[in-house]
Amino acid sequence: MIEAFLTYQFLQNAFLSGIMIGFLAPLLGVFIVVRRQSLIADSLSHITLAGIAANLLLAKHVSFFQGLNPVYLGMTFSVIGSLLIEQLRKVYKFYQELAIPIILSAGIGLSVIFISLADGFNTDLFNYLFGSVIAVSRSDLFIITTIAVLILIVIIFFYKELFFLSFDEEQAIVSGIRSKWIHFMFIILVALVIAASMRIVGILLVSSLMTLPVAASIRIARGFKQTIYFSILFGELAVIVGLIAAYYLDIAPGGTIVILSVVILIAAVIWKKWKQTRGVRTNLIKR
Q: Does the keyword Membrane apply (predicted)?
């Protein structure tokens, strides 16, 4: 495996991209879960698919799009979708959760239309749906690296504001935090990560990498920061082991990563249950 990694550029691209995605997706996923917006990743992934399908359709008729990385148009659609979600949350002030299924439905509808106009599925689109190790290019690696640097800067400088808004938005607004601007900034970052992650995990599975590691860490972590640390640890473990397994078994990396995330979640739940049972037994013995 080490020899192959040093020899083949696509493996280098895949592993370096995967390591960054395994870090970024759970990091933002913690804030998403705390905000009770877990399904937002699904919504943005489907609108991203519409962007990818639109690019593949345009590439058949416009020469400019033939040499353009579909990730760029996917990101554009994803960012627009994220901004529309924020606007719809204001429109449906007392039913804010409606914003997510509205954009999700629009994304699915547009995707089906663009795919049908492009004469159905092709290999490129299939790779975007479920992920492909060999499809990751240097261009994709550069995009993910740029997004990773941007997100780290935002998290470092706006951690307190994001933390406050995630747990008590009303109190944060009263305290003078510019919630509107930070909400827009955060949702755009989520959109960018989802669009960048589709090469490795796949559009239909990327939301799993944002939620499953967080769900596992919540069961065993003590405090918010520890939840972030465990989420990143579980995300990296699932990505690295998943990519290695996908390489040797010749299977889709996206599905492998997600299943490993599920296994980690089940292990965390069992470990927490065992620890609670052990604690009860210890208390009974002391009595």
A: yes
